[in-house]
C-alpha cells in the first residue's frame, strides 16, 4: 500500500490553473450562453455610461431628476418589458431579463425598481390581462420609454393583506367611478398611466387609469432614507371617472395583481445579487488597498473569513437565480419557488452588504463607496413586494398544506 498522500497540490489539476474571477469562484459564467453574456454586457455598458457617474449624487439628493430621459434611454436598448412578446417588446428570455435586473441593481435598486415596475407590473398587467385596445394604446409607448407606468395595489393600511383593500370602484351607467388611496407607489408622480386595483361588486378588478384623468393625483413621498434614487408616491383617487373600456377584461380577483407581483419578485431574486456583488467587489478592492499594522487587511484571517463567506453566499444566490430562470423559461415557476428565491437572496444580499460595511470601517458609510447605499436600499427590498414573513408562510404552506396567513 502506498503511503503517499492522496491530496492534490493546487497545481495538480488542469482546472486549477484556469484563472477565475474572485467574484465568480464557481465559474457560473460558464453556464451562460454567449447571447446571455452579450445581453448582460450591453446592460452593464448602459449603466456605466448613463447612470453610474450620477447615482451617488441622485441618492444623496433623494431624487431621480432625469427619469424621463433615463426611461427613453432604457427603452431604446429594449430593457422595458424586455421579457414580453410583441407590441414593441424585445421578447427576451427569463434568464436574459434576470441578468439585466442583476446589472441594473448592481448600479442601484432604485434603477432596477424603475425597470421592474414598468415592465413586470404595469406593462405585464396590460399585456396579460388587457384588451387589444389597451395593449395597442400603451405597450409600444411604454416599451420605448415614451410613457411611464405605475402599479397601484398597496394601501396605507393594507400591505401584506391586499384582499382588505379599501379602494373601491362602482358603476355609474357605463362608466366606473374610483375612490381610494394607494401608497409607496414607484414611478407614481411621473407616470402617464397607472394600473390600479380596486374592490367592486364583481370582486377585485384592475383599471388602466391615464394619470391626467380628473380626480387623480400622485403626491411625492419625501424623507426616505432608502431607495432615494427612485420616485415614490401616494396615489389619490377622488371620484375618478373612467369609461367601461378602462377595466382589464381578462381577470377578476387577487389572481391578477398577485401574478404581476410574481413577475416582479422574480426580477428581485436576480437584482439582489447585483447589489451583493457590488458590495463584495468594493470590500475586496478596499481590503487589498487598506494597510493596517504593516500589511493589507486582506492578508488577515478574519478579513479573509468575511470575504469567503460573502463569496459563498453570492455564488449560492446567483445559482439559485439562474436555476429559477431556467425553470421559468422551460415550464414556469410556482409561487413558493419565487418566494424561496426572494426570501433567500434578499436576506443574504443584505447580510453581504452589512459584512462589506465592516470591512470598509468608517468609509463604509460614505457615498464614495456603494456599500451603504446598497445596504439602505435592500432594507426596502426586504419588505416590498412581499415581506420576509409572508414569503416564509408561502413556503410553509407549500411544505405542510396548511395556511398560516390567518
Automatic annotation (TrEMBL):
SUPFAM superfamilies reported in the protein's UniProt record: Acyl-CoA dehydrogenase C-terminal domain-like, Acyl-CoA dehydrogenase NM domain-like
Give the UniProt family note.
Answer: Belongs to the acyl-CoA dehydrogenase family.
Q: Which UniProt keywords apply?
A: FAD, Flavoprotein, Oxidoreductase, Transit peptide
Q: What is this protein called?
A: Acyl-CoA dehydrogenase family protein
Annotated Acyl-CoA dehydrogenase/oxidase C-terminal domain ranges read 252-399
Organism taxonomic ancestry:
Bacteria, Bacillati, Actinomycetota, Actinomycetes, Kitasatosporales
- List the InterPro entries: Acyl-CoA_Oxase/DH_mid-dom, Acyl-CoA_Oxase/DH_mid-dom_sf, AcylCo_DH-like_C, AcylCo_DH/oxidase_C, AcylCoA_DH/ox_N, AcylCoA_DH/ox_N_sf, AcylCoA_DH/oxidase_NM_dom_sf, Glutaryl-CoA_DH_mitochondrial
Region described as Disordered: spans on this chain: 1-20
Q: Per its UniProt record, what PANTHER family does this chain match?
A: GLUTARYL-COA DEHYDROGENASE, MITOCHONDRIAL
The cofactors named for this UniProt entry are: FAD
| UniProt domain Acyl-CoA oxidase/dehydrogenase middle: residue ranges | 150-240
Signal peptide region? none
Domain named Acyl-CoA dehydrogenase/oxidase N-terminal: which ranges? 33-146
Kindly name one Pfam family recorded for this protein: Acyl-CoA_dh_1
